[in-house]
Amino acid sequence: MTGEMTAGLKTRTPAGALAPAIEFVEVSKVYDGKIAVARIDHSFDVGRVHALMGKNGSGKSTLVKILSGAVQPTLGHVKINGNRTELATPRDAFAAGIITVHQELSLVPSLSVAENIYLGRMPKKRFLGSSVVDWQGVNSRAAQLLREMGLDSDPRKPVSELSVGQQQIIEIAKAMSFEPKILLLDEPTSALASREVEQLFNLIRRLRERGVTMVYITHRMNELFEIADTCTVIRDGHYIGGVEMSETSPAQIIEMMFGAIAKAKRPPRKEIARSKPVLSVRDLSREGAFENISFDLYPGEILGFAGLLGSGRTEILKSIFGADPFDRGTIEFEGRAIASPTPRSMKRLGLGYTPENRKEAGLVQMLSSHDNLCLASLSRIASNGVITKPHEEPFVRQQITDLAIKVPDAMLPVSSLSGGNQQKIVIGNWLNTSPKVMFFDEPSRGVDVRARQQIFEIIWKQAAQGLACVFVSSELEELLEVADRIVILKGGRQVGTADPVTTDLTALYRLCMEGADH
Ligand code: ADP
Ligand code: MG
């Protein structure tokens, strides 16, 4: 789309000023008698990147769904480019030039990248008198789209072979192939590694140059200052404020989101007695995944794993935990050699693991909070092999209290809770096993700022009581804040270690990108 074309699409108000791209007029949404969005009266200017912030449940996704025609406002209406527009169905939104990238991925894993992008609108050609899919056309068009966006993905590759982050990028590429005038992004970066976030930001900048208006939901504060032009904060469905990014600070935005809250302070770092490791790993290798990984983990220590997506962090943890095999190397737990770990045997020894994808691996969504808090510790709670709810009750209560988990009713399915509370349940489930070592794989992914701070506090508190932790995060700031020592991984190899007290963010980022001494 050229500059002139986009300009031609803009309508002007009588005063000559550009009408806002999006205007919410007294919009409210009530679900089952509960207010999700309360009289929002706010507009978004054309051709800018508008961040929408708010803690979980504040109504962000509902606003996006109203714009994408998935949900109808109970009261009020929406104006697009100054004109009142009925967005009764996703088709209406599409016709108004509005494309949405939802939080959940919608690609079909078995299909190729190109097929996913052009699903339902494959270019056709005539062959022997009938209309057939023009495969060459599909692939070359997709290749061109990807090239234009500066991506080097192979359009013929099945989506199932891509990482979650790359899939997310393809999802966005697909949205862009519709040449939207308004692009809505609901937490697009929660699964992206730093480099992929950079790719996404480049795409967003390109679209901004073309005059596309974007509404961008994220939990990551640092991203706002890099990519957004404005930030709108809502809390409990109410509009709290809108600011220009150039005139605000993270502290101001956090205050708008939560009212004034203090950022959790890390307890002062204490000297860790590095005499007897609880976990010792030597030369652990798995063909194609990681090679010669060696480290010692001491009681009370928080060992950070830094690295970009694909650096092998999760694979290493899974192999030690016994969920995946390894080819070579040794693992010692409290001085005992573990030849072939299994999740069951490792759990019995005192190793807990909160996986990176809590929705799939960490929780049983259909089960209640109560049941999810007892999954890992059933054998410990059972008396004479019989488990009853009363036996479990104290364990459930303790975690709900200790971790300040907000559950209206512990018997309701865990799927009804916010991301932050679900993550605390995953952690509480493992703490109920009284572990000696915990692997926390991306514990802060997709949770809001306050819940993230609470999760760090839980980790610090457990470490202070002697728990040895491995902490994986794609956000390098978090590693510097949380860990006592950081192991840097790149392409499945250990390329260095960093002391968070003396390493700054740029240096750590460079180490992850380039490795040490290379
Ligand atoms: P956010 O995206 O900011 O986390 P949402 O827009 O998803 O917030 O939710 C706002 C409120 O509306 C929450 O209290 C949520 O529980 C409620 N809600 C969202 N979708 C539904 C629905 N389909 N049915 C009932 N309540 C819902
Ligand atoms: Mg949401």
Strands, helices and their partners?
Blueprint: H1 3-9, E1 22-31, E2 34-44, E3 49-53, H2 60-67, E4 75-80, E5 83-84, H3 90-95, E6 98-101, H4 113-117, E7 124-127, E8 130-133, H5 135-148, H6 164-177, E9 182-186, H7 194-209, E10 213-217, H8 221-227, E11 230-235, E12 238-244, H9 250-258, E13 279-286, E14 290-297, E15 302-306, H10 313-321, E16 328-333, E17 336-337, H11 343-349, E18 351-354, H12 358-362, H13 369-372, H14 378-381, H15 389-402, H16 419-431, E19 437-441, H17 449-464, E20 468-472, H18 476-482, E21 485-490, E22 493-498, H19 505-514
Parallel strand pairs: 3-10, 3-11, 6-9, 9-10, 15-20, 15-21, 18-19, 19-20
Antiparallel strand pairs: 1-2, 1-4, 4-5, 7-8, 11-12, 13-14, 13-16, 16-17, 21-22
Bound molecules: adenosine-5'-diphosphate and magnesium ion.
Q: Averaged pLDDT, please?
A: 87
Sequence of strands across the biggest β-sheet: 6-9-10-3-11-12
Looking at the structure, what is the overall shape?
Answer: globular
CATH superfamily of the largest domain: P-loop containing nucleotide triphosphate hydrolases
Describe the biggest sheet?
6 strands, mixed
Spatial separation of the terminal alpha carbons: 43 Å
Tally of DSSP β-strands? 22
User: Can you name the CATH architecture of the largest domain?
Assistant: 3-Layer(aba) Sandwich
The computed structural class is: alpha/beta
Please give the domain count: 4
Rg, nearest Å: 25 Å
Distinct helical segment count: 19
CATH first level of the largest domain: Alpha Beta
